[in-house]
Amino acid sequence: MVLDARLAKLATGQSAREAALAFSRSRNEKLADAERARADEFEAILEAMFLMAAVDGEIAPDEVGQLAASVQAILDTTGGKLKLDLGPAMAELGERLARDGWKGRLDTLARRLPTEESRTFAFRLAAAVAFVDDNVVHAEAAAIDALAGALGIPADDSQRILGEVQEELFGG
User: pTM of the full predicted structure?
Assistant: First the structure.
């Protein structure tokens, strides 16, 4: 099974699909308030992944690839074949990170992810980004803990989720 298919299995919640679709549409269209809120929620999920990729001071090509694959896998669960150019979104996230710092951006995530489902989903995908190179360095491990704390995910739950993500990505 390819990585995109594995990540798509994580993107099974209706809220995640609707948010991904709204985010895709938000890049080219003006949205109604409810759909704008879903797009903003998905952008926060994307930012959680971006922050995990950036925690070590650089975003490696395989991490950018993981971000793109994750977003595309989620979009594919909407039933269509939507494609999204992540370049502008990545540039925006990079500008925010440079302006506010890693911790500053992390502190905004919980309020932008209003449901337990969206916070857990963001955590799962951010963990997948950390695990992509099969080598979680100290900075990434600390970032995973900080992300769980910022999202209000208890330690036992975060460890369970991390185990599930690792199993899903790499098998036994």
Answer: 0.81
